[in-house]
Amino acid sequence: xxxxxxxxxxxxxxxxxxxxxxxxxxxxxxxxxxxxxxxxxxxxxxxxxxxxxxxxxxxxxxxxxxxxxxxxxxxxxxxxxxxxxxxxxxxxxxxxxxxxxxxxxxxxxxxxxxxxxxxxxxxxxxxxxxxxxxxxxxxxxxxxxxxxxxxxxxxxxxxxxxxxxxxxxxxxxxxxxxxxxxxx
Length: 184
Ligand SMILES: Nc1nc2c(ncn2[C@@H]2O[C@H](COP(=O)(O)OP(=O)(O)OP(=O)(O)O)[C@@H](O)[C@H]2O)c(=O)[nH]1
What we know:
The protein has 184 residues and is an alpha/beta fold. It contains four helices and six strands, in the order βαβββαβαβα. It is a lipid-anchor.
């Protein structure tokens, strides 16, 4: 059996948008309701996608803001990025845009695999960012767009499958679709 391909993905975005919750939901299948700011954490999980085995390393970063300096280590050995905002915060969407600019400056390459995630889509009453606004930024930064709820485990696995798919696009037959937050 071929060895699993090792891929590293960094989760970035404002504080408290749900980066850790997405990683924990994906890797451990649970949602933790209390909030504990992350310094930095790494998770790993074996993922089978399109018949290939991957060892996925998720770097859960400390939340950033528009003034944060992009740590140079996030450009080294990282294969893809998940930029997360929360649909109840327009500010957190703006931070994703700034982070993207800083990231591109740092890595000097505009073709990096990115998934833009609007998390907390269960918070319907508090929505400040429409799906359209999220989708527009995603198009601008050439990212795949998804809305998720780490709480309700909606579209969470899709985030990581999409970022892997984006990485492997050159070498395979992979889809490029987008999914909306499904309200059931
Ligand atoms: N309603 C709702 N709450 C969520 C969701 N995801 C995360 N939360 C809550 O939002 C808060 C912050 O979640 P975290 O996962 O710690 O956020 P983070 O982005 O890792 O935060 P930092 O470590 O500060 O960067 C916690 O209280 C979570 O329970 C979601 O999908 N829906």
